[in-house]
């Protein structure tokens, strides 16, 4: 198991955001975390990515305790994440954004006097990811000038440029048009295969995306795990249908996967 | 290519100034070159890392007082030794200051740096025996590359050897800074300026990089400060006063913090404009205040930004 959380509890004053959440992610899995607003999804992903420290419980990544380790250490350990609200470097070009990730991955970020322009390995690494995400033609465009869908892609692409072992995506398709959602997810899954990513965990509201791409779905409700299983099992769980997804989804058919 | 040509022309113009310009104007080039060094460092923090310091006069004064102390009290006249000592002391003082300040951003960072600047200002003002108090300390004429040049008339010394020495230090400082901003480290600073949260998720330790940028900028300020001393022959506490920190931020905004040479242009325009305005009206701060307002509103990228502003069609090109 590449990522394991045991008995996670998170209190914000009197409010209990997570209450005894346990989960595990195996190599090769695409896991989706779903739940209504306030279920604790964002808190969970913040704890899993070391941004927040749990009040109780533990998170282990590759058998190391990482509770509150912080994003810098986790990025170096092989965990990457993207945010719900798109995070870019507005004044950097697409290529520079990806170069920054490659430079960090290769441990060259502290080189004060080395020429970035002459570093072929960094250039190659950045271009490779730009091509994977269909951004190569826009490599000299500043991030602020990209359309919203491309901004989202760049955000995710920069996380992929770290060549992590696991990536945690907080609503990877939020804020993009319905037409772009599938394209983004297809690109993401293809890129994951190409860079040898071992696991993907996503928080997602769009149930079409969740059912189409997930190997396993974890449903949260009021800070607790309501259900944890493959899409077909989740679809047949009436409690999940009622509380998390809504009755509309009860008629949905599980995709053949 | 055009930028390279402009830089080459600029260097030729500065080098030719003693032959074609009046002594008065050549002497004004000396503080310009000293401030240009200060601003190259300050802009690593401001333009490249996104932190605005209102306390860098501390490091300018530290460099100037280092030179004054060494020449007056320690009998050391070598400008090379003075510059290296100023740089080392600048780094030494910057380490604890930066360690505290870079944990904060925006107004909190600005006010903290200003607070440290005011502490140092009070120190140089009150420790009379060491600093000469409000009268300051003489900065005796330093030797250049082992040559004493003591017998040379002061003006000849300043517009001759000292002028070209300052130019060489500026050239070297610009070259080193260019390498820094073009390096992987420089790219990481830009990621921190644009989005520190995102930078951390890429494994870039924001506090650590801000710290290094601060220390480098302090070294540059100390070196520039040491070069400010010889033309006047005296250093005083006003060098450490917070309005001096404000002036160098103004110079950076004036030239443009979004480009590498913007602050250098800002230093040049500030020095000559200040001199010109002061010769016409006594209220130069009134004129400069109005100018600052105009620049912030109408030319946020500064004077160099006006010249190099990209057309929309070219905006996509890196």
Unreliable stretches covering 5 or more consecutive residues of chain B: 311-318
What is the architecture of chain A at the second tier of CATH? Answer: 3-Layer(aba) Sandwich
Rg from alpha-carbon coordinates of chain B: 19 Å
Structural class of chain B: mainly alpha
Assembly level: heterodimer
Largest sheet of chain B: 2 strands, antiparallel
Numbering strands along the chain, what is their spatial order in the largest sheet of chain A? Answer: 6-7-8-3-9-10
**Sheet bearing the most strands of chain A, described?**
6 strands, mixed
Order of helices and strands of chain A: EEEHEEHEHHHEHEHEEHH
Mind telling me the CATH superfamily name of chain A?
P-loop containing nucleotide triphosphate hydrolases
- What is the tally of helical segments of chain B? 14
C-alpha termini separation of chain A: 22 Å
Backbone CA Rg of chain A: 19 Å
Provide tags for this entry.
heterodimer, A: 257 residues, alpha/beta, Rossmann fold, 4-stranded antiparallel beta sheet, 10 strands, 23% strand, globular, B: 318 residues, mainly alpha, two-stranded antiparallel sheet, 74% helix, disordered C terminus
What does this structure look like?
- A six-stranded mixed β-sheet of chain A has the order 6-7-8-3-9-10, with helices on both faces.
- In chain A, 35% of the residues lie in helices and 23% in strands.
- Chain A has helices at 41-48, 71-77, 94-105, 120-132, 148-160, 178-195, 207-213, 231-235, 238-245; strands at 3-12, 15-25, 30-34, 56-61, 64-65, 79-82, 166-170, 199-203, 216-221, 224-229.
- Chain A is α/β, with parallel strands linked by helices and 257 residues long.
- Chain A starts with a strand and ends in a 12-residue tail after the last helix.
- In chain A, strand 4 (56-61) and strand 5 form a beta hairpin.
- Chain A has a single domain (3-251), classed as Rossmann fold (3-Layer(aba) Sandwich).
- Chain A contains nine helices and ten strands.
- Chain B has 318 residues and is mostly helical.
- Chain B has a domain at 21-242.
- In chain B, 74% of the residues lie in helices and 1% in strands.
- Chain B has helices spanning 2-20, 23-46, 57-72, 79-101, 106-126, 128-131, 154-181, 184-194, 196-201, 206-232, 242-255, 262-280, 284-298, 302-308, and strands at 137-138, 234-235.
- Chain B has a two-stranded antiparallel ribbon with strand order 1-2.
- In chain B, helix 2 packs across helix 12, helix 3 packs across helix 10 (206-232) and helix 8 (184-194) packs across helix 10 (206-232).
- Chain B is globular and about 60 Å long.
- The model of chain B is unreliable at 311-318 (pLDDT under 50).
- Chains A and B meet through helix 2, strand 6, helix 3 and helix 5 of A and helix 7, helix 8 and helix 9 of B.
């Amino acid at each position: 198991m590449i990522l394991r959380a045991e008995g996670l509890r998170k209190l914000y004053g009197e409010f209990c955001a997570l209450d005894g959440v346990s989960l595990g992610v195996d190599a090769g899995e695409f896991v989706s975390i779903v739940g209504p607003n306030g279920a604790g999804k964002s808190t969970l992903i913040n704890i899993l990515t070391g941004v927040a420290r749990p009040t109780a419980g533990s998170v282990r990544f590759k058998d190391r305790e990482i509770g509150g380790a912080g994003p810098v250490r986790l990025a170096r350990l092989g965990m990457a994440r993207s945010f719900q609200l798109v995070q870019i470097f507005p004044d950097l070009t697409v290529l520079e954004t990806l170069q920054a990730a490659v430079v960090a991955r290769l441990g060259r970020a502290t080189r004060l006097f080395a020429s970035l322009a002459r570093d072929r390995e960094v250039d190659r690494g950045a271009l490779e990811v730009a091509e994977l995400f269909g951004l190569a033609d826009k490599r000299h465009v500043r991030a602020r000038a990209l359309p919203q869908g491309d901004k989202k892609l760049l955000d995710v692409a920069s996380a992929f440029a770290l060549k992590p072992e696991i990536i945690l995506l907080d609503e990877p398709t939020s804020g993009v048009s319905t037409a772009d959602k599938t394209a983004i997810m297809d690109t993401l899954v293809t890129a994951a295969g190409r860079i040898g990513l071992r696991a993907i965990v996503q928080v997602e509201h769009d149930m079409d995306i969740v059912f189409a791409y997930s190997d396993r779905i974890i449903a949260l409700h009021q800070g607790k795990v309501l259900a944890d299983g493959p899409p077909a099992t989740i679809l047949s769980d009436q409690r999940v249908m009622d509380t998390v997804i809504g009755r509309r989804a009860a008629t949905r058919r599980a995709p053949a996967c | 290519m055009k930028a390279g040509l402009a830089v080459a022309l600029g260097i030729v113009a500065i080098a030719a100034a003693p032959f074609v310009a009046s002594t008065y104007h050549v002497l004004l080039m000396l503080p310009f070159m000293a401030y240009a060094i200060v601003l190259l460092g300050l802009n690593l923090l401001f333009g490249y890392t996104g932190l605005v310091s209102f306390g860098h006069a501390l490091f300018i004064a530290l460099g100037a007082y280092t030179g004054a102390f060494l020449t007056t009290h320690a009998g050391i006249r070598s400008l090379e030794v003075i510059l290296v000592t100023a740089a080392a002391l600048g780094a030494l003082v910057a380490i604890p200051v930066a360690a505290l300040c870079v944990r904060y951003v925006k107004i909190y960072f600005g006010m903290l740096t200003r607070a440290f600047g005011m502490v140092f200002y009070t120190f140089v003002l009150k420790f009379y025996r060491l600093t000469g108090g409000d009268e300051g300390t003489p900065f005796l004429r330093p030797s250049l590359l082992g040559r004493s040049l003591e017998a040379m008339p002061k003006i000849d010394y300043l517009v001759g050897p000292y002028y070209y020495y300052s130019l060489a230090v500026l050239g070297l400082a610009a070259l080193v800074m260019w390498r820094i901003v073009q390096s992987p480290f420089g790219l990481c600073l830009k990621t921190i300026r644009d989005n520190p949260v995102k930078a951390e998720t890429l494994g870039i330790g924001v506090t650590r990089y801000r710290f290094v940028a601060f220390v480098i900028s302090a070294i540059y300020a100390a070196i520039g400060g040491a070069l400010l001393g010889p033309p006047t022959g005296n250093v005083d506490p006003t060098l450490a006063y917070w309005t001096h920190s404000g002036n160098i931020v103004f110079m950076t905004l004036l030239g443009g913090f979004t480009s590498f040479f913007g602050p250098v242009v800002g230093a040049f325009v500030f020095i000559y404009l200040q001199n010109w305005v002061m010769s016409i009206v006594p209220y130069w701060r009134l004129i400069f205040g109005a100018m600052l307002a105009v620049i912030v509103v109408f030319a946020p990228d500064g004077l160099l930004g006006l010249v190099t502003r990209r057309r929309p069609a070219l905006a996509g090109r890196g």
